[in-house]
Amino acid sequence: MEISIKDELYSDIFDMSNLQSSLRPTTNSGNNDSHESEWCDVWSDDGDLCHDSSDKLDKTSEMDREWQRRHDQFHTVGYRDGLMAGKEASVQEGFNVGFTDSVYVGYNWGLVRGITSALASLPNGLKERMVDTKEMQNKFQQLHDSVQSRSTVEMLKVFHDYLTRKSEESAKNDNSSTCLADSSDLSSNDSLLENYQKELQSLIDESGLKLHLDTKE
Q: Distance between CA atoms of 62 and 70, rounded to whole angstroms?
């Protein structure tokens, strides 16, 4: 009797223990499933966030590249326009200075060539009426031949060399100089243009021609 009562008591205890043991894995399994589900949701949310962040970074990078491209493009265009504007301004300034320096000399040289050529081309009868003596006629002819022997390129080179030397002297002395200086300041080549002008004026005065070189300075 005692054995049966003990067996029944222990049997109930064993049954309860077995029941708890059987229920425990089920509960843990349920908890694990719940945690896994939560983690899956978290990972799913993070994936969406990462995807959105990646899109934003791509758009930002694209905008940066476009900005850099436009910046380089306009920088190049502005640099080129600046060079062209500076070049044009420099050329214009050089032209203005060159024109101011050369117009007086060129004008006088044109007068010398034009007058001597006009006198040389006159018929002998008209030439004798304008210039009394044969000697004076020969002097005009010699001046004409000498002027015609000088090419325009040669005279330009003479004038260019003169301006170069005067510019160097002006830089050394720190003094401004005019285009034409006194004959004492010029070498033989430098005074060539001025000598032609003076010689023509002298012949005109000696021959009695009513002609005056209205030189511009």
A: 12
The per-residue DSSP string of 41-75 comes to HHHHHHHHHHHHHHHHHHHHHHHHHHHHHHHHHHH
C-alpha 217, offset from chain centre: 36
CA distance 115 to 211: 10
The ranges assigned to domains in the chain are 95-207
Give the Å distances, CA to CA, from 157 to 146, 183, 193, 198. 17, 18, 12, 21
CB atoms near residue 196 (< 10 Å): 21
Tokens of 147: 């002027």
Name the residue among 174, 177, 179 with its Cα closest to residue 160. 179
State pLDDT tens for residues 26-50.
444 444 455 555 544 544 554 455 5
Q: Is 64 exposed, middle or buried (0-12, 13-18, 19+ CB in 10 A)?
A: exposed
**Angstrom distances, CA of residue 192 to CA of 48, 91, 118, 196:** 92, 29, 21, 6
pLDDT score of 186: 40
